[in-house]
Amino acid sequence: MRIAILGRSELLLQTAHYLQQKNHTIALVGTARSETHYRAHEDDFEKFSTQNNIPFFCSQTLNKEEIIDKLKSVNADIAITLNWPNLIGSDACAAFPMGILNGHAGDLPRYRGNACPNWAIINNEEKIALSIHKIDPHSLDSGDVILKKYFSLDQNIYIADIYEWLEDITPLAFCEALDGLENETLQPIHQSNDPQDSLRCYPRKPEDGKINWSDQAEKVHALIRASSHPFSGAYTTLENEKKVTIWRAELKNDEPPFCAVPGQIMYRHDGHPVIACGKGALKVTEISIKGIKNNNDALQILMKSVRSRLH
Length: 311
Prior knowledge:
By secondary structure, the protein is α/β, with parallel strands linked by helices. It folds into two domains: about 1-200, Rossmann fold (3-Layer(aba) Sandwich), CATH 3.40.50; about 205-305, Formyl transferase, C-terminal domain (Methionyl-tRNA Fmet Formyltransferase, Chain A, domain 2, Roll). The protein contains eight helices and 14 strands. It has helices at about 10-20, 40-50, 65-75, 90-95, 115-120, 160-185, 215-225, 295-305, and strands at about 1-5, 25-30, 55-60, 80, 100-105, 110-115, 125-135, 145-150, 200, 235, 245-250, 265-270, 270-275, 280-290. A seven-stranded mixed β-sheet has the order 3-2-1-4-5-7-8. A five-stranded antiparallel β-sheet has the order 10-11-14-13-12. It has a two-stranded parallel sheet with strand order 6-9. Helix 2 links the parallel strand 2 and strand 3 (about 55-60). Helix 1 runs parallel beside helix 6 and helix 5 packs antiparallel against helix 7 (about 215-225). It is elongated.
């Protein structure tokens, strides 16, 4: 198939390489301004295009007349996209006989929008999905679903684990979807339009990682797992107002009954501080403190603060 690559991030660039290896033809590469945390940027997409003699453009929208003309000019059968920064219109979708496929890290139609893997951890879901679906013009994550791939979630899963899985599965899923459509072995499944079946997810900012120690331990633990690397981390402050970022922690399910103010550093366990929550406790295993990069040094400071409180 002749395929147009439209979007951003290292995942899309990896997918383009993989589709080439599977004897698909990349007819066009289009990207937009990248996010700072991406590992592939505009120049990486342009380099891929130059090396393979593929037409290239960089634009913040696909809905301009000159861009739509470029989409039509390459005679691609279909386009795939990841992380395009805004809604795609009907003229852009119509530029490809088989439409545009989007890769969405959310279990459609339930998880639509932004930061869906992070929200799935916070909401204590049992699994997260990569959904490959057709784009409906001017609509968010609402087109027919071609296929889904699932990843199980539990209290040991951090957001980085989901991203590692996505790196492995995304190129394979796109290839399977394209081959299934070409061979007519996959049938698109219409998404429900009932608002009760969908959950609109909005972006998360670094300040959303602030810990409320009055929450039960499971909720604090979920926030830590959802905010950890590659994101900015869940955070709290010591009584001297030093910021403490908590990257990893464990539930202390064997904790006997206790009375402590939420956020109190109660004692040390296996060299790690144990912190009281509104219900239950957490053992903190990986942290950073502003100005201190080494995890062990930061933990030592926290353990010397036993009986102090985090805020």
